[in-house]
Amino acid sequence: MNASNTLANVNTNAPSISTSAMLVELSISTWTGRKLDKRASQDVTAQASAQKGVANVNKKLLGDCAELDAVQKFTANARNVHYAMTMPWSDTGLRLLPTTQYFKYHREMSTLQAEYERLVNVFLQAYDWEISQAQVKLGDLFNSDEYPTADSLTSKFKFKMNYMPLADAGDWRVDIGNEAKDVLATQYESYYATQLQTAMGDVWSRAHDALTKMSERLDYSDGATKKIFRDSLVDNVMDIIELLGACNITNDPTMELAQKQLSTAMRGITPDALREDAYLRAETKRHVDEVKRIIDKLPSLGM
């Protein structure tokens, strides 16, 4: 774009959250350790007198490799932490991160990144040994040409966070003429509003799920059959209290009310106390149900 061109902004009525949230992208890649064996696939279909292409044989190149399994399981866990601390925004993988959540998010994800890299190094150190063991595990399915070198394998593992600012709906600094710019701004305003509603709806849905589970698990008296619940039942609701506070980027009074009521209801509550005290269980369930009813009344969620 020519620097001499005039840049203009289009003002819209879409809510501005550019100062209270940012976009974050988590990129994690791992080596799958799997390979399609075309010859074995052909043999299977031929032996079954089946049509070519109806069956595929995918083999684990290292068989059951504990070091690689550890990396892959850890990757799934890291993604879950990422999803839990952020809100949905786009289909491309970008997530909405409240600025109040940034330091906690970055600290936790950096810790996970360090552990991921440690696990990858453990796997790479064991890689050559695992290949030698794979010859026994795979038998005739073993093909040495299918194994990348340890050096090239390193590039298949990646753990990276990218942070980006969130533009206001009216921030269209492009030189395409005012009429076209108005059209773009209107389209983005609609997208902006929809994505924001989706993001906030995701927070409400998570809260509803956690409260529903707690309400169901606490619904028994001393004379009734005890319902078993883990300590995480309380931990999950405590996480929701924090989430409702950190993710209220639109200053929604309903979300603020729900967060305050839930915080008051859960103050001093422990799993053991709930297991031992029928009155405390009943009171906690009553308060939890009150907050859940607030969420149930939200028309946009269709609860």
Overview of the molecule:
The chain folds into 2 domains: 21-165, no CATH class; 187-296. The chain is 55% helix and 10% strand. The chain has 9 helices and 6 strands, in the order E-E-H-E-H-E-E-H-H-E-H-H-H-H-H. It has helices spanning 38-47, 66-85, 102-138, 150-154, 178-217, 232-246, 253-266, 271-276, 278-296; strands at residues 21-29, 34-36, 58-60, 87-88, 95-98, 158-165. The chain has a 4-stranded antiparallel sheet, with helices on both faces. Strands 2-3 form a two-stranded antiparallel sheet. A hairpin with a 6-residue loop joins strand 4 and strand 5. Helix 5 packs antiparallel against helix 6 (232-246). The model is unreliable at 1-15 (pLDDT under 50).
- What structural class do the secondary elements suggest? alpha+beta
Task: Give helix % range.
Answer: 40-55%
Give the strand order of the largest sheet, numbering strands 1, 2, ... along the chain: 4-5-1-6
Poorly predicted runs are 1-15
The biggest beta sheet reads:
4 strands, antiparallel
Distance between the termini: 48 Å
Count of individual helical segments = 9
Q: Topology as H/E string?
A: EEHEHEEHHEHHHHH
Strand content: 5-15%
Count of discrete structural domains: 2
Q: Work out the number of β strands.
A: 6
C-alpha-based Rg, rounded? 26 Å
Mean pLDDT level: 86
Shape: extended
Keywords:
2 domains, alpha+beta, disordered N terminus, 4-stranded antiparallel beta sheet, extended, 303 residues
Quick structural gist:
The protein has helices at 38-47, 66-85, 102-138, 150-154, 178-217, 232-246, 253-266, 271-276, 278-296, and strands at residues 21-29, 34-36, 58-60, 87-88, 95-98, 158-165.
